[in-house]
Design a protein that fits this description.
Layout: H1 2-5, E1 11-20, E2 23-32, H2 42-55, H3 70-76, E3 90-101, E4 106-113, E5 116-123, H4 130-138, E6 145-154, E7 160-171, H5 185-190, H6 192-198, H7 200-222, E8 226-227, E9 233-234, E10 246-249, E11 254-258, H8 263-271, E12 276-284, E13 296-305, H9 309-327, E14 332-333, E15 336-337, E16 345-348, H10 349-357, H11 370-382, H12 393-404, E17 413-416, E18 428-429, E19 432-436, E20 438-443, E21 446-453, H13 458-469, H14 481-488, E22 494-500, H15 501-508
Parallel strand pairs: 5-7, 8-12, 16-17
Antiparallel strand pairs: 1-2, 3-4, 3-6, 4-5, 6-7, 9-11, 10-11, 12-13, 13-22, 14-15, 17-20, 18-19, 20-21, 21-22
Helix pairs in contact: 6-7, 7-15, 11-12, 13-14
Amino acid sequence: MYLRMMNSQSLRSVGEVFYREGVTVLSCLIVPRRHAHTPVPKEQYKLGRLKQLKDANINLYTKFRPDCDVMSIRKKYDDLKGGDQAEGSYKIAGLVSKIRESGNKLKFVDLFCNGEKIQLKINTKNLTNPGSGADEVNLIRRGDRIGVEGSPCRTKAGELSLECSQVKILAPCLHPLPNNHLENTKKRFGRRYVDILLNPSIRDTLASRSSIIRFIRRYLEDRHFMEVETPILGSSVGGASATPFVTFHEEMKAKLYLRVAPELYLKQMIIAGFDRVFEIGKMFRNEGIDASHNPEFTSCEFYMAYADYNDLMHFTNHMLSNLVKEFGFQPRHGSVDVDFTADYKKLEFLPALESAVDCRLPDPDMLQSDESLKFLVELCRQRDIPVTGPLTVPRLLDKLASVLVEPNLVQPTFLTDHPMIMSPLSSPRPDNPHLAERFELYACATELCNAYTELNNPELQRSTFRFQAGLEDPESMLPDEGFCTALDHGLPPTAGWGCGLDRLTAILTNNHNIRETISFPLTKPVASKLSSTES
């Protein structure tokens, strides 16, 4: 009886389990809200909240249908004057992010509704059910999902609010939310929903990601590209130099691979008669995790018949410039503003690398020789550049560029005309068959796009596949006779383009790690521990 008489506005309860005569009895441990510095065990907090809500006869997990959203209320009542209240009544629902008490009967609650915040003004004496309604209001905690009905008003302090006449707890948060953002990386990504709840900037990043993907899709469709879907599971690997994930199909008794790129299928769609196709989807590469790599990532690839890599440089510049303008992105690299709206600079791959190493590299037609391999190995050794995995010319050239050239490409820059030995799916330049009609777009010292005029000569494609197979590199492309047979049917002059959308989002939103742009990035699984009752 004494506990029931205590002021519920200045107290909170948590659960405590006692065992009496072999029977579990749940009692109520009351802790003053402003003086409870000792963290309450999660299970006790959960049991205590459930008991409170049950004792107050709160009917949880019921339906509620909002009839308005915060943005609409803000637009309609933006000119409401301080101290005034509108006549209309609206139902909204959302997440409780902050509770402020002003006396015994008045509370101000910050409610987030689909990313938009509005203040609720809850005076228990103004509720349509002041008795039971006041009990329910006093049981609201941070993280709860609630539904309310009320009239727009503007407080004397000038805050547009909703004066509530009804308040309903829809789904209580049964775990105490931290007061600050999660700092531990494992906790952040392991409990991503809490991380997003506590950090509005993450929500903004994910919303920006959605806007970027929507813009690119619309941009392509407005230019008569058709969106298609290609297989994620396949019996062969191709389209990129990467290590695949391998699985096994029990019924077929066959080893299958998760795709590393959709390129070969999309080019077959061009062969089939679709002149412009694109796909936005997941790729899977069995590689390391760092600030710019995740084993599972989202990319956009498109293919345009009767175009070449010069056309795609103009296309890319125009698309990304308009993307940045439409959403007002302001990317930065350290203290430097990065301008995606200007004309992008162009650098040829080998001259840029020669300038960086301050010596002449082997001619493109000599890069397949053993002497070139030895030269590049020595070049890496002289500059203390570690190289792992098989020592091949493509790997060494890529490593040298990643260390000596790419860090300087802060403003958007096209790195063009890579050696053919690095570009097995690219068409050679007419004036130099050992250089590819290829470019990579860099910004903020990070690769954003890879594109080239597609190799459509089936015999030359077979030859480049055979050379790749002879490199004994697990990331090199394997021969794919099925694709080459498709090329035999005639691939028109075509240009192809690919962009990692996680990485693009990270740069445009000023995030230093692409995992921040992924809703649920891959985390290392925690080894489960068998309980003492398990054998």
